[in-house]
Design a protein that fits this description.
The structure holds 3 protein chains of 3 kinds. By secondary structure, chain B is of the alpha/beta class. Chain C starts with a strand and ends in a 7-residue tail after the last helix. Classes of the chains: A mainly alpha, B alpha/beta, C mainly alpha. The interface between A and B is medium-sized, with 24 and 30 residues. β1 of chain B pairs parallel with β1 of chain C.
């Protein structure tokens, strides 16, 4: 756990990553708050906050008496969200670093094409 | 939100020395609190005041809405474990564990026995002959197995080695998840316990510097690194926590969340943004208070 | 956001139960208040027996009688007292701070400890008075040895001896505890003030009695009171120690 960012956000991100990667398919059960807390050795209230964040966002839903489940359509929604942020999170830093090193946009495009074909 | 402890303008003076200086805070039920601060900051004194072991010089304390002093109704719900606990010479470890259940109504004997085995406490030895780690383990086991609705741990794990400390943190979290209770942990080993805490109260020289939710604290500061001039321009007008520099390089820690736009601006200016851990943040805040106190 | 105040989940055990828990706490290691005192008595008795056996074996009848009479002045019968004093002091010095950590109120602690002192004193006194009687009945354990039939116990009834034993033990325990309480509350400074004050008081009294030539009066008073009377009067300072001990401990803190 990264101590410099709120832990509940990191928990939420990990669950989201697992959903996107297909590790936790839609309509499958995610571990309980206590299980997350025990696994990461964090306060259960903090783990709960992360889970609740995803419940509020409609990514997870609660089945009374059983536990938390991945909502249908969650994966697509998450992918769409990540796509929106892709530009600011990955493209901008890439461009900034390339500019620092004096790599032109054409050279960059060539690198990307080359990397994709490998 | 249920308040379980409330301190109002609490103070404690020992002769010329003010150990606790006009301190006010509330503790809410069933959360894990960290009472953090340097050695001698006043953590132990505050805990002793909250448990009725010492008497306030000023201010009031309400536990369950009543004063805890000589109050059996309140104190039967409280356990106070401290690092420097001395046990009567005549006791062996087994005597302490035999006595405890009579004082803690929610004592879990099976849990205690599991912990005794895990911490490897020799039951039949005189307490005087136990190592410091073993004595600390006795205290820690009592605190955990007592299941007291309000459990204070005053740095009881200092004598424990790293393995035993991790065991304590693990068992505490597990038990707290199954059987919620109000836990107040004082320590100066911030990085070890930071993940356990829900709320942080930071004390320095008898005053409260910080009283916030732990998650709010995380990520509430950033270190800006880069060329001195660029850094200076970026941090203009912000609350500065700490300055550092090497040659033409400057490293300044600022408080306050940076918006995505601000972050982008920093990167564009060739600056690097580094995270600030809870421990670093608290150390900086404590130092700030001390140096400001000296200057004022 | 409205904040409500939590209510205690655990209700305390009834007062008598809590006080009894303190008694049991002091006795969790049986050696302290039961084992060791009786081992000391046993040891003193063994020594007394050995002395008499040696005298009988090596000397004539006249010497045996002299030895027996000498033994009536020995303090062996009170041998466990120094240890009991230490036990009383440690009950405050060590057990008190420990119980505070367990959420025990000072009041419950003091009442429980006082009850313990009473039970121990009475229990031991029953045993000691009975042994004294037994020694008389068996003519010195069959060999003329004297341990219990000594000092002020010689020739006394079981009840009288029981009373004296009890008063002595109550005194040792409560006075020791009260002094320990002074230390708990006022630490070194308290000790200095107490001992210097006590010394001054005693010197003052002795000076007063000496200067007014009242020693004969004092002697007469002791004789008039008799052994039982003197010990009955001794209960006054003991009760005073017991009472003040409570008030001193009420504001004591376990600073360590």
């Amino acid at each position: 756990m990264d101590e410099s960012r709120p832990i509940f956000l990191q928990i939420a991100e990990q669950i989201e990553n697992d959903i996107i990667d297909g590790i936790t398919p839609e309509e499958s059960q995610v571990p309980s708050t206590n299980e997350f807390a025990a696994f990461h050795r964090i306060n259960p209230a903090t783990a709960g906050k992360g889970v609740n964040l995803l419940v509020d966002a409609g990514i997870l839903y609660k089945k009374r008496g059983i536990g938390m489940f991945v909502a249908s359509g969650a994966r697509e929604r998450l992918i769409a969200q990540r796509r929106d942020h892709f530009a600011t999170e990955f493209v901008q830093p890439l461009l900034a670093e390339a500019a620092k090193l004096g790599i032109t946009t054409q050279q960059l495009a060539a690198m990307i094409t080359k990397g994709a074909s490998q | 939100m249920t308040t379980i402890i409330e301190a109002t303008k609490l103070s404690k003076i020992f002769g010329a020395f003010t150990a606790v200086n006009d301190v006010s805070f509330t503790i809410e039920e069933n959360k894990i609190y960290g009472l953090l601060g340097r050695n001698g900051a006043g953590k132990t004194t505050i805990m002793q005041l909250l448990t009725g072991q010492d008497f306030p010089s000023g201010g009031t304390i309400n536990v369950y809405g009543q004063s805890p002093v000589e109050n059996a109704e309140v104190l039967s719900n409280v356990s106070f474990i401290k690092e420097s606990q001395k046990y009567p010479d005549q006791f062996r470890a087994k005597h302490v564990f035999a006595a405890a259940p009579r004082f803690f109504a929610h004592w879990d004997q099976a849990f205690a026995e599991q912990l005794i085995a895990e911490f490897r406490v020799p039951l039949n030895r005189d307490i005087k002959k136990l190592s410091r780690g073993q004595v600390s383990a006795v205290g820690v086991i009592i605190g955990l197995a007592s299941r007291a609705p309000i459990t204070f741990f005053d740095e009881p794990y200092l004598g424990l080695d790293a393995v035993a400390r991790q065991l304590f943190y693990d068992r505490l979290l597990e038990d707290y998840a199954e059987h919620p209770r109000t836990v107040i942990l004082s320590t100066h080993l911030i990085d070890e316990v930071s993940d356990l805490l829900e709320h942080v109260i930071l004390i320095d020289e008898g005053r409260i510097i910080l009283d916030t939710d732990a998650e709010e604290l995380r990520g509430s500061a950033t270190t800006v690194v880069g060329r001195s001039a660029d850094v200076a321009a970026f941090v203009e007008g912000r609350d500065i926590l700490h300055r550092d520099g090497l040659g033409g390089l400057a490293s300044v820690t600022v408080t306050g969340q940076l918006s995505p736009a601000e972050r982008a601006a920093a990167i564009a200016a060739g600056l690097e943004l580094a995270p600030v851990s809870l421990q670093q943040l608290i150390v900086r805040l404590s130092s700030l208070e001390t140096s400001e106190g000296k200057n004022s | 956001m409205t904040a409500t105040t939590a209510t205690p989940t655990i209700t305390p055990a009834p007062e008598l139960s809590r006080i009894w828990n303190i008694v049991r706490l002091h006795l969790v290691n049986k050696q302290t208040f039961i084992g060791i005192p009786w081992i000391i008595v046993g040891g003193a008795w063994a020594v007394s027996m050995a002395i008499m056996l040696i005298v009988r074996a090596s000397a004539g009848d006249a010497d045996v009688i002299k030895a027996a009479s000498g033994m009536t002045n020995s303090w062996a019968v009170l041998s466990p007292l120094w240890y009991m004093c230490a036990a009383g002091v440690l009950a405050i010095a060590q057990v008190f701070p420990f119980t505070l950590g367990f959420g025990v109120t000072r009041r419950d602690f003091y009442l429980g400890t006082s009850l313990l002192f009473a039970l121990v004193s009475v229990g031991n006194s029953i045993g000691l008075a009975t042994l004294t009687e037994l020694e008389a009945v068996t003519n010195g354990w069959g060999i003329g040895a004297v341990m219990f039939q000594a000092l002020f116990f010689k020739g006394g009834s079981w009840l009288a001896n029981f009373f004296i034993f009890a008063v002595i033990q109550f005194g040792i325990l409560f006075i020791g505890a009260a002094i320990a309480a002074i230390y708990m509350r006022w630490r070194v400074m308290g000790m200095l003030v107490f001992w210097l004050g006590l010394a001054a008081l005693l010197v003052g009294i002795v000076a007063l009695v000496t200067l007014s030539g009242s020693w004969p009066l004092v002697g007469e008073w002791f004789v008039a009171q008799g052994v039982i009377g003197v010990f009955a009067w001794a209960l006054v300072p003991v009760a005073f120690a017991a009472l003040t001990g409570y008030f001193i401990l009420r504001r004591a803190t376990p600073k360590n």
